[in-house]
């Protein structure tokens, strides 16, 4: 039974999932009524909560577990399973301050002592894959205007929507580092929307040119998985690198693949 614990967290409002105004979970009063009912074909074995994404400190989890324990005590319910969700943050920026995962583990484990659970479930997806993936994109054009410079690349908001959707930050580097004076550019895609960007006011060597490659960091989570064919754009191939071995694990799409489902 997934509870909405009405707990706020410090993250983008689109990825908060446990405030009372969010669509997720069951409020505590309604959950209490469910526990009092007898069901012919259902036996409630556990509690689930998910606070949101990109959580940088452990305190919201501790508050949530305390609320769950109090709810269970008041309603004389002993869960066998507790799923604490995921949302463990990763550093997207060098300056990001995130508590070490060991501290999350130690404090959550301490809080769960004496709760008599058989199983604890957690969902550490982003933490595992987020910083293991990058998006490599090619410079199509360098455009210098009065007061603003642009690097137009062949990747767009359909390939990595996080900057447009969440105003999120991804480090962007030239694939081959260059010397020289640096100036600021917006790194933008080729889609006809002002919101189609990967990074704003980033410093690059002024000698960057058409044909160079850029690397967008931390694209392993919610990069390809949120990509789309918006603007009739083909999604990227995926490549896995292990030591010196390189394998393509998803081939590049073709237009015939894109239009094949259309019947009229």
How is this structure best summarized?
Helices cover 20% and strands 25% of the residues. The chain has six helices and eleven strands.
Describe the protein.
With 264 residues, the protein is an alpha/beta fold. It has two domains: 116 residues, TIM Barrel (Alpha-Beta Barrel); 125 residues, Lyase, Ornithine Decarboxylase, Chain A, domain 1. The protein has six helices and eleven strands. The chain has a six-stranded mixed β-sheet. A hairpin with a 2-residue loop joins strand 4 and strand 5. It starts with 27 loop residues before the first helix and ends in a 5-residue tail after the last helix. The mean pLDDT is 94.
Give a topology summary.
Elements: H1 28-36, E1 46-48, H2 59-74, E2 81-86, H3 101-112, E3 119-123, H4 125-129, E4 135-145, E5 148-153, H5 162-166, E6 172-174, E7 182-188, E8 197-205, E9 213-216, E10 238-242, E11 245-250, H6 255-259
Parallel strand pairs: 1-2, 2-3, 5-7
Antiparallel strand pairs: 4-5, 4-9, 6-9, 7-8, 10-11
List the keywords.
single chain, 264 residues, alpha/beta, TIM Barrel, Lyase, Ornithine Decarboxylase, Chain A, domain 1, three-stranded parallel β-sheet, 6 helices, 20% helix, elongated
């Amino acid at each position: 039974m997934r509870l909405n614990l009405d707990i706020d967290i410090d993250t983008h409002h689109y990825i908060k999932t446990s405030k009372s105004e969010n669509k997720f979970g069951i409020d505590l009063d309604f959950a209490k009524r469910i526990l009092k009912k007898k069901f012919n074909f259902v036996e409630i074995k556990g509690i689930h909560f998910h606070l949101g994404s990109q959580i940088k400190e452990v305190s919201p989890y501790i508050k949530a577990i305390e609320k769950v324990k109090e709810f269970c005590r008041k309603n004389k319910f002993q869960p066998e399973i507790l799923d604490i969700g995921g949302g463990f943050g990763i550093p997207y920026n060098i300056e990001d301050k995130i508590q070490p995962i060991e501290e999350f583990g130690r404090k959550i484990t301490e809080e769960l002592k004496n709760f008599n659970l058989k199983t604890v479930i957690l969902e550490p997806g982003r933490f595992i894959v987020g910083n293991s993936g990058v998006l490599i994109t090619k410079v199509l054009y360098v455009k210098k205007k009065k007061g603003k410079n642009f690097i137009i690349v062949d990747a767009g908001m359909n390939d990595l929507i996080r900057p447009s959707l969440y105003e999120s930050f991804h480090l962007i580097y030239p694939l081959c580092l260059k010397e020289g004076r640096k100036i600021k550019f917006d790194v933008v895609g080729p889609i006809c929307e002002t919101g189609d960007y990967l990074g704003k006011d980033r410093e690059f060597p002024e000698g960057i040119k058409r044909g160079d490659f850029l690397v967008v960091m931390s694209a392993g989570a919610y990069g390809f998985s949120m990509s789309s064919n918006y603007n009739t754009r083909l999604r990227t191939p995926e490549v896995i690198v292990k030591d010196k071995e390189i394998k393509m694990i998803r081939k590049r799409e073709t237009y015939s693949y894109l239009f094949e489902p259309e019947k009229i």
